[in-house]
Fold this sequence. Notes:
The structure holds 3 protein chains of 3 kinds.
Chain A: H1 3-33, H2 44-53, H3 55-89, H4 91-106, H5 113-119, H6 126-149, H7 153-161, H8 166-200, H9 210-219, H10 223-251, H11 256-260
Chain B: H1 8-11, E1 17-26, E2 34-44, E3 49-53, H2 60-67, E4 75-80, E5 83-84, H3 85-90, E6 94-97, H4 109-120, H5 124-137, H6 153-165, E7 171-175, H7 183-200, E8 203-208, H8 211-217, E9 220-225, E10 230-236, H9 251-271
Parallel strand pairs in B: 3-8, 3-9, 6-7, 7-8
Antiparallel strand pairs in B: 1-2, 1-4, 4-5, 9-10
Helix pairs in contact in B: 4-5, 4-6, 5-6, 8-9
Chain C: H1 2-19, E1 25-27, E2 30-33, H2 44-52, H3 64-99, H4 101-114, E3 134-135, E4 138-139, H5 142-166, H6 171-179, H7 184-222, H8 228-237, H9 245-271
Amino acid sequence: MNGASLQRKVANAAVPVAFGVGFVVLWEFLVRWRDIKQFILPRPSMIWKEAVNNAGFLRSAATVSGTNALVGLVCGIIIGCAVAMIANRFKILAELVTPLSAAISAIPIVVIVSILNNMFRIGSEVPRRLMVTIVVFFVVFVNVARGLRQSNSTQMELMRSYAASPSQVMKKVRFPNALPFLFTAIKIAAPLAVTTAFVSEYFGGTQDGLGQKIPAAMANSKDPLGWAYVGAACVLGLGFFIAANVLEYVAVPWQRSRNSG
Amino acid sequence: MKHESHSPDQSLGQPAVVVDNVSKVFNAGGRQQVDALLDISLTVQPGEFVSLIGPSGCGKSTLLRLIADLLSVSSGSLVVNGKPAAQARLDQDYGMAFQQAGLFDWRNVAKNIELPLEIRGWDQAKRRERSAEMLELVKLSEFASHMPWQLSGGMQQRVAIARALAAHPPLLLMDEPFGALDEMTREHMQAELLSICASTSTTVIFVTHSIPEAVYLSDRVVVMSPRPGRITATIDVNLGGNRNDDTREASEFYGKITEVREALRGIEHVGGARGIEDR
Amino acid sequence: MVPGALVLMIVLWEGYKAIGPENGADVFGVRLIPRTSDRAMPHVVEMLRRFGRPEVGGGSSRTVFDAVFAATWYSFRVALLGLVLGVCFGLLIAMLMARFNLLRKGLMPYLIISQTVPLIALAPLTVSWGGRLKLGSFEWQKWMSAAMLSAFLAFFPVAVGAIRGFASPPAASLELMDSYAATWWQGFRKLRFPAALAYLMPAFKLAAAAAVVGVVVSEISIGLRFGIGRLILSYSQEATGDPAKVYTAVVGAAVLGLAMAALVSLVDRTLSKNRPAEAQA
């Protein structure tokens, strides 16, 4: 990177950073000036103080929710890819699952965690992980199925001219062609997994995740702490998203130029 | 550079491709029936360079795909390398290059060239050796481990040609391979292709829109007309084996260009020739 | 194929119930195989029957169907209000960002980040507003918190879609407008806005789903009664004695989401007569 482009990057980053800082300062100032009550809107400085004082609690709660999200994410990706590949061979399966996934994207699917809770023993984290798996599955299935369908026609003609077998075509053309679609799905699914794991906790079960801690803090009138937990949830979601992007950068390098261009 | 000759017993006397009375109909019997090709006959001798030229919709790409057995004939017979076209495909008796290089983004240059060999089940050492040889042929040895998207359009097309020739097929089928390149690169690639063909004594069937390209490259230019696709003229180009940039300035070259253009103009009076480049 | 998909789900459910272990089972020491007892997995027929029976014992109360319907209708209205507010604000902000470069540069990264963080976490933070926040004679109601969160969640996809859409016309078209000496507003009305429609419709669909989730989750986390989210929670707490009941409420939530999606595609249908296919979001 040369000096000029570095300078431009700094200049580009300066505006959003200024907006962010300005927003927080304005918030702090408004709350102090208008003497807004803590239960309506706590000051950013108070939230930060609570976050630092309770860093250990924040970390352990984030670990619980994060683990649920990660386990569900991995399971959903594996099952989604497998079903998409099977559906590429047996069209009837694709025709059954595709409208289902369209409908699921419109409904608040997370409510079925209240059903799953009854199917497992009390205190189990499995229903929440299962919930994340279901949500991730549909995202991955839809994208990977599309990727497997859309293969470059020149490449397909080439494979035919080589008299390649269907499994060679799947391995050497269809699957690598679907990889960018898989990573697009993972980028959507990773933050979604965090949100789902988190909302699942509202429906009862063990009390140790981020989703349970926020209402608990609010109920005890520890509003700034509640906001700190929200902050932790956002950091977790952002972390998953960044991780998914890094993974894509490493795994499908030929997409790099396309994403930036 | 030394090359093993391709099945010498077959190159003696036996034609490389025999197209006999071939017709191709799309959507036969349907409302949108298209007579893409009607009663085409064409014989290509080993080592010959034949161009197919004609306006859009004249069926030149269809004819190429029939020879490649990517499509099957509606009637007539097609013999490639002494066998039915389907068997020739299974034996990888031809290599093919398209307008889009069609390189696999996730494979480096050498691995792209090795792809057809992998499909045939060659072991890795043999594949390595062959891809190195092909890279030398297309003068890209130092780019073996580059990824396709790091190459220019002309270089990508050279890789595609190397891939098409990797199994040392006696026949090379090319569908407007230089159509997407700029004029300078295009002339350079034409010269490269001729020298590659000379050193490997490969038979080439080449589909193009460009009259000078067809004349510069070919021993024979086959002019086709649309609706239905037919061969209207065959022009022998005797510019000699050693063509170079001076060839493009020679009066014989211009003479042949005029001859091809007039053959195409005959079509224009009938149906209107679209998509022919005069450059 | 939608009926086929429904049949597939019912077959899977009843099939697993028939062959699965009554009390669940462990895989690698973790209880992974769900129970199939009638308490954990009631028959589909039983769920349907439950709609017609009274909500609570005693006979005089309304049927479950009436309760679920009333709750779904209540949540639908709150979600619709949220969606409309979210769409309006989203379009407004996107327009301002299209007009003022500085605003776009400053806000764009935050709009992108907003799509990756669980904004839904904000729901319980407004729990203390209901009944305590007063501005003169205006008193904040709990349902307003739900509508606000719903609007907040719907806002982001609309803003992001609209920004992309407003920026979508090719440079040549923009130069053409410049060559006509068109004002910014003319360029917006005649070029940017029509071009953005293809991006807005997928965004509206996302926003509708987000608004529904916003209402359902707010109801649960701030303890708003009357809505379908709360009904699911309270029915699921009765699951030990009345297992089929919670499924009726889940069906209500599904209907809520589908009704909202249907409404949006109706709007889409009326607006999309002279427009090419949707852009891929």
